[in-house]
């Protein structure tokens, strides 16, 4: 078992009157892929967004409880959410490159966070991030071309390169393959497996096959509750809870 990277205690989330997350306690390991699964509306994305305070941007959303990353309370008023999101990167369902060149998409974060002292260092970060995101070979001769001109799968890898360019410690992925074809999906899944050498990766997925392929730990959510959290193999072959069993066998969801 790897070290614990994220500790969430008694987390509750409300959107106005809707109680979306009900007293969730979970410990997420470093250098591990953790999958969040469960039926639509069970709270997977809401809980994922708690981990880098993306819910702060939703007026009616109220987050309670305690979330620590490396022992530090991420909801402490001293924490700057912009800095936090550089440390806890995020990749969304739909590839959303900036309307800028491939180079500038990746260079943007390191620039605003002052991670490069000069152009040569910035070039190096861009190349390293694109290599890590398995996009360098396809992109190296067109770094000035717009990011939006890439294929869907390439755009998603560009967004992954952008997220890892700020040297995050955690990468959150909210259904990162749902807009991709099977080949692009396989490439991103392969990449996720490599990324876990460097970070803690947390992925929300609708696909149980994907969770089984990419993750080592799986958390099953149902109606805002974290029902079961265990080794991925255990969840899919021998779950403890009847609700998990029903979901993985296709009876609910
Ligand atoms: N911005 C929002 N405003 C109000 N309610 C919201 C908002 N986002 C989510 N909810 C509600 O919170 C609950 C959990 O939603 P969430 O999107 O986290 O579920 P999910 O498991 O990720 O679903 P899906 O798999 O369909 O994406 C649902 O009842 C949803 O309607």
From TrEMBL:
This is Phosphate ABC transporter ATP-binding protein PstB. Part of the ABC transporter complex PstSACB involved in phosphate import. Responsible for energy coupling to the transport system. One of its GO terms (cellular component) is plasma membrane. SUPFAM superfamilies: P-loop containing nucleoside triphosphate hydrolases. It comes from Yoonia rhodophyticola. One of its GO terms (biological process) is phosphate ion transmembrane transport. It is found in: Cell inner membrane. It comes from the Bacteria. GO terms for molecular function: ATP binding; ATP hydrolysis activity; phosphate transmembrane transporter activity. Keywords: ATP-binding, Cell membrane, Membrane, Nucleotide-binding, Phosphate transport, Translocase, Transport. Residues 6-248 form the ABC transporter domain. InterPro entries: AAA+_ATPase (IPR003593), ABC_transporter-like_ATP-bd (IPR003439), ABC_transporter-like_CS (IPR017871), P-loop_NTPase (IPR027417), PstB-like (IPR005670). It holds the Pfam family ABC_tran. It is a peripheral membrane protein. Gene3D superfamilies: P-loop containing nucleotide triphosphate hydrolases. The gene is pstB.
């Amino acid at each position: 078992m790897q070290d614990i990277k994220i500790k969430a205690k008694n987390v509750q989330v409300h959107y106005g009157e809707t109680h979306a997350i009900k007293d969730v306690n979970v410990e997420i390991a470093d250098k591990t892929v953790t999958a969040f699964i469960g039926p639509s509306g069970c709270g997977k994305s809401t809980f994922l967004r708690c981990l880098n305070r993306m819910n702060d941007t939703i007026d009616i959303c109220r987050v309670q409880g305690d979330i620590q990353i490396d022992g530090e309370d991420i909801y402490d008023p001293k924490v700057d959410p912009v800095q936090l999101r550089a440390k806890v990167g995020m990749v969304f369902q739909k590839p959303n490159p900036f309307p800028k060149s491939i180079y500038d998409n990746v260079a943007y974060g390191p620039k605003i966070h002052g991670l490069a002292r000069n152009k040569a260092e910035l070039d190096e970060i861009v190349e390293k991030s694109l290599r890590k995101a398995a996009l360098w070979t396809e992109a190296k001769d067109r770094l000035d071309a717009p990011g939006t001109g890439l294929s869907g799968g390439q755009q998603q890898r560009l967004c992954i390169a952008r997220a890892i360019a700020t040297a995050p410690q955690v990468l959150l992925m909210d259904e990162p393959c749902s807009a991709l074809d099977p080949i692009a999906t396989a490439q991103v899944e392969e990449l996720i497996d490599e990324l876990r050498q460097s970070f803690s990766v947390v992925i929300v997925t609708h696909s149980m096959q994907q969770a089984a392929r990419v993750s080592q730990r799986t958390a099953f959510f149902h109606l805002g509750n974290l029902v079961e959290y265990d080794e991925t193999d255990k969840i899919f072959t021998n779950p403890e809870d009847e609700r998990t069993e029903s979901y993985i066998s296709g009876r609910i969801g």
